[in-house]
Amino acid sequence: MKRLFGTFGVRRIVNQELTPEFASKLAVAYGNVIKGKIAVGGDPRTSTPMLKLAVEAGLLSAGCDVIDLGILPTPAVQYAVRNYYDGGVIITASHNPPDYNGIKFVDKDGIGISDEMEEEIEDIFFNDNPKRVNWQDIGDVNTNHDLVKEYRQQVIQRVDQKAIKDAKLKVIVDCGSGAAYNTTAYILRELGCEVLTLNCQPDGFFPGRDPEPIKANLKELIEVVKTTDADLGLAHDGDADRTICIDEKGNFILGDKTFALVEKHLLQENKGGLIVTTVATSSAIYDVAQENNGEVLATAVGDLLVARKLKETGGLFGGEENGGLIFPDFVYGRDAALSAAKIIEIMSLEQKPLSKLVADLPAYHSEKLKIECPDDKKNEVMQLIANEINEDPRNFELDTTDGVKIFTPDGWLIIRPSGTEPIFRCFAESKNKNKAMEMAEWGISLVGKYLK
Ligand code: MG
C-alpha cells in the first residue's frame, strides 16, 4: 500500500506538507535507490527553486551527482534522462493551482519509476533511514541549461520541415505562463510558422489564465485565433506535457480528436502499428486503428501506465483523451512540443484546415457526470454494479481493467472511482448524443442505488 505517491509522484500544498525538509528527505531516499548522475528540472512555479535546491541537497548527500537543467518542460527532463543520465527529478504540479507543487521521479529511461521503487523509497522515508555518504563522497553539481535547445532541435528533426515551411501557417501559442515558454513558440518559428504568443512569459502566479488547458480557461486564446484569422491555436498545461488545439474557426478540439488525428497519420506513415491508450478513451481510436492496419491496447487510466505499456510492447504511439500524446521513440511520457509540431505537420501535408481534418474522423458524443461516494464504499459499490451487469439478461460485455466498463449496443459507459476525490465518474460515449447522456445518467443511478 503506497502512502506518499499518487499516480505519478507526490503533489501537495507548498510549505504546508511540501516543505524543503520533506523534499530533501524524499530526495535522499530516491538517491539511495537509484544512484549515479541525476538530472533535476522543473516548472516556473514560485516554489520550484526552493524545492529544486532542497532536492539537489538531498541527492548530493546521498552521493549522487546533480545536473540542474533549469526551468523546462517535464518531457524535456525525461528526454535528457533517457539519453544521458541515470535518473531524474521533476519539480512540478502540472495543471494544479499556484499554491501546489510536486515531485516526480523517473528511472534511467526517463519513465516514471515503478510501484516497487516507490515503495522502496517510502520505506526509507518512513523508517527514517536514509543513507548519507561521508564528506569525501558527496556528489558534484553541474548545470546544463542548453539541454532545452537540444530538445527543441530534436522535435524539429522529427517532422517534415519543408512541408511546414511551405504551408506558412499562422499559429497562436498560449503557454499559460508555464514551462512551454522556452519551447513551442521557438520551435514553430524555426519551422517557418508565423507565431503570435499569449501567456508565454513564465510566471508562477499564472496571471493570464489557470494552468489547466480546459475550454473555460481558453476564452482569450479562442478570441485571438478568431480575430487574427489564425490557422490554429495551441494551449499547454503548466509543465508542458499536454497540448490542446483550437481550430481556425475558434472551436475547442477535444483531446481524443487530436489523438485520433495523429494516430491516423502515424499508422499510415508506418503502415500499421500498436497504439496504447486507456479504457476511458474514445472508440474513435479503435475505428482509426481498424481502418489503418493498427491494433489498440487499453490500460487502466493514467499516462504512466500507457507509457510503461508502450515501452514493454515496443508500441508505435499512445495517448489519453485529455490531449496528452506519447511518442515512445522520443520520450516515454506525454510530450506537448512534439504533439504541437506533429499536428502542424499533418495540417501542412494534408493542406487542409484543422476543422476539416477533425470532421473526417469518426464522430462520437461523450458525456461525463460525477457522483459523491465515500472512499471506503467505492470497492463494494463497484463489485455490486459488476454483479448486476453480469446477471443482466441483456448480456452486456464487461471490462473491469479500471472501474466497470459496460458495452451496450448504443456505445459504452465506464463507472470509475476517482483516485484522488471521494467521487465516482460516469463517462459514456455513443454515436447518438441523447444516448450518451442516458447512459451517463444510468451510471449515476447505478452508483446511487448501491450507495444506499
Ligand atoms: Mg502536465
Biggest β-sheet: strands ordered side by side in the sheet = 1-5-4-2-3-6
Which regions have little confidence, pLDDT < 50, spanning 5+ residues? none
- Determine Rg (CA atoms, Å): 22 Å
Which CATH class of the largest domain is shown?
Alpha Beta
Shape: globular
Q: Per DSSP, what share of the residues sits in E-state strands of 2 or more residues?
A: 15-25%
Q: What does the largest sheet look like?
A: 6 strands, mixed
Characterization of the model:
The protein has 452 residues and is an alpha/beta fold. It folds into four domains: 10-147, Alpha-D-Glucose-1,6-Bisphosphate, subunit A, domain 3 (Alpha-D-Glucose-1,6-Bisphosphate, Chain A, domain 3, 3-Layer(aba) Sandwich), CATH 3.40.120; 167-252, Alpha-D-Glucose-1,6-Bisphosphate, Chain A, domain 3 (3-Layer(aba) Sandwich), CATH 3.40.120; 255-359, 3-Layer(aba) Sandwich (Alpha-D-Glucose-1,6-Bisphosphate, Chain A, domain 3); 365-451, Alpha-D-phosphohexomutase, C-terminal domain (TATA-Binding Protein). The chain contains 15 helices and 20 strands. It has a six-stranded mixed sheet, with helices on both faces. Magnesium ion binds next to loops.
